[in-house]
Write a structure and sequence with these properties.
single chain, 227 residues, alpha/beta, Rossmann fold, seven-stranded mixed sheet, 9 strands
């Protein structure tokens, strides 16, 4: 019997060139929130962007004066450097002020997750990590027009009988190995994983793009005060 080779991170099993041409409202929302979160971090001018996607995030951040290096496993997206997030050995310790990984880590099997977090923590002082929330999402927003206040009520419909997969991606047409909300991947579970490598500055739900749970992190390896 032939032995099966160990899994290695690979490119998305979709038409990447065609996908790269598509721009949706979520792309603009995501780019804005990355910029907003960056401005909340002191000394965040040197950025490693893992997974540049269609390139809108890069354009916005460079337009705002950030020094951006792009990194991706897939040459389709024309990154500055090709590689996988679980191995950032090409970079020095704390080479970057901030690493951004928006909807990237779920594309790797679970066994690469802790390794990826450790590498991100090693090469940067801060990290901005966005993750997908499983299921369907309902939202009611009320804007009474009083002093700019509004109220939001949300509901996630998650299939709790579904389990994160092992070596074969199952979610979203075979792209995701795991998502927030599934067994072992509730918000508290992911926070616990991240807390091994980071001080968690903030966790928030993107109210303008409900499938995204966003983390702002300060590296424990950087040995600098988290501001």
């Amino acid at each position: 019997m032939m032995s099966r080779e160990p899994f290695k991170p690979d490119v998305m099993p979709v038409d990447r060139a065609e996908w790269r041409k598509q721009l949706n409202l979520s792309n603009f929302i995501n780019a804005y929130y990355q910029y907003r979160d960056l401005t909340s971090l002191t000394g965040s001018g040197n950025v490693l962007l893992i997974g540049p996607g269609q390139g809108l995030d890069v354009a916005v951040l460079q337009w705002q004066g950030y020094n951006v290096t792009t990194f991706d496993i897939d040459e389709t997206f024309e990154p500055d450097i090709i590689g996988s997030v679980h191995d950032l050995s090409i970079f020095d310790d704390q080479q970057f002020d901030v690493v951004i990984a928006s909807h990237v880590l779920e594309h790797l099997p679970v066994r690469f997750l802790d390794e990826s977090l450790a590498e991100i923590s090693r090469v940067s002082r801060y990290a901005i990590i966005y993750l997908p929330v499983n299921g369907r999402h309902l939202q009611i927003r009320l804007r009474p027009g009083i002093m700019g206040f509004y109220w939001t009520f949300g509901l996630d419909i998650i299939n709790f009988f579904r389990r994160p997969s092992g070596e074969v991606p199952e979610f979203m047409s075979g792209q995701h190995f795991w998502e927030v909300g599934l067994p072992g991947f509730k918000k508290c579970d992911i926070k616990k994983r991240m807390s091994k490598q980071f001080i968690v500055k903030n966790i928030y739900r993107n109210q303008d793009w409900l499938p995204s749970l966003n983390f702002i992190l300060c590296s424990k390896q950087a040995m600098t005060k988290c501001r």
